[in-house]
Amino acid sequence: MFRNHQELDVTVIAVASVGSRVEVDGETGFIDQVKHPSWWDENCPPPEAGDRLHVVVLDASREEPRFSALQRDIDMGRHLRDTEARDHPGRAGTAPQKAGSGGSPHMDSSPAAELQIHSVEDGGATPAVCIVRCMGGVVRTGQRFTTPPAVAVTGDPVLLSLDWIKCYERTVDFIHPPWNAKVGLSGSGVNSLTRGIILTALADEGP
Fold this sequence. Notes:
Blueprint: E1 7-16, E2 19-24, E3 27-32, H1 37-40, E4 52-59, E5 66-68, H2 71-87, E6 114-122, E7 128-136, E8 139-140, E9 144-146, E10 159-167, E11 170-172, E12 174-175, E13 180-188, E14 198-201
Parallel strand pairs: 3-5
Antiparallel strand pairs: 1-2, 1-4, 2-3, 4-5, 6-7, 6-14, 7-13, 8-12, 9-10, 9-14, 10-11, 10-13
C-alpha cells in the first residue's frame, strides 16, 4: 500500500502518450507525462520500458496511484514528510495541506508571486486550463496577474485572475516554489498565453 510523499524506485513497464505505467514489488502506478523530467528538459530522454526511476508518491488514493520523477516534487515530498513528522510524530505521510491547516509547508514571504506557463491545455475553456510552475513568492487563488504588453502575442492587455489551483491532483489554496500545478486562469489577454510566459501578481495582490 502506497503512502503520499513516499519515495520509491520503480520500473517503467509501459509508455503511452499521456504518461508511463510503472511497477514496484508487484504493485503498479502511473507517472503523468508532465511528471517525467523529459517534459521539462529537452535534453532528457523520454521514458522507455525497462527504465528505472526514483519517484515520489503524489496521490496514493487514486485507483492507479500517481507518482512523480521530478526532483522538485521529490524534494517537496521530503519537506512535507519532515513537516508531518515534526507536527504529528509517528503519523504516516498524508495529502498536501491547504493554506491555514496544520502541517502546511513553509511559505516564501516574498511578495513577488510569479507563474511561468509551461503549456495551455485548454485555452478555449472558461477559465483557461494551464500547466504552470511557481517561480517565486506564494501564489494564491484569487490573485490577479499581468505580464509586460510586449510579451503578449496578440498585443492585448493581460490581466488574469487565478480561479483555482490543482496540485498532486487535489485542489489547494496556494503553491510556492518549486511546485508546479494545473491552474484555471480567466480575464483579459487569456488568448496571449503561450509556453514560457511569466505572469507576475499585481503589487497589491501579494501575500
